Amino acid sequence: MESYCVDKNRGNKNSKFESEEFALYVKSLETGSYKWSEDDSFQIGLFRNMLFSALDCKEFEWMEHFVNNYSKELNPEHRDNMKYYSFALLEYGRKNYELALENLSKVEYKFFSFQNGRKRSDV
Questions:
Q1: Residue 122 domain flag
Q2: Are 13 and 36 in contact (CB under 8 A)?
Q3: Using an 8 Å Cβ cutoff, are 79 and 72 in contact?
Q4: Residue 90: what pLDDT?
Q5: Which domain holds residue 99?
Q6: Beta-carbon contacts of residue 28 (< 8 Å; ≥ 6 apart)
Q7: Are 33 and 46 in contact (CB under 8 A)?
Q8: pTM to 2 decimal places
């Protein structure tokens, strides 16, 4: 269902599927279905998609809570970079551009998703 919403949102800023996609992500966190098992790491691509969905819906408080509470479940190899990247997106969404740049300057661009930029809609 998430993939369907992502596909319908592609190129359609403010699509009616943005809120549906976000609601599905929230539900997957509530039910614990975002990971295969308790021992698994949070998949970085899914984490990133949840961030973009929250950003699209301007759910900044939720986004901050999400990063603070779920980034510790990311693979340690990517954890710090993803936190900086996440807070850069959050502050950009809040129009705190200096804080966004400060966080973005701390990201090490080893992971391909950090290098390629955003593929969905513009922020």
A1: no
A2: no
A3: yes
A4: 97
A5: 2-116
A6: 2, 34
A7: no
A8: 0.79
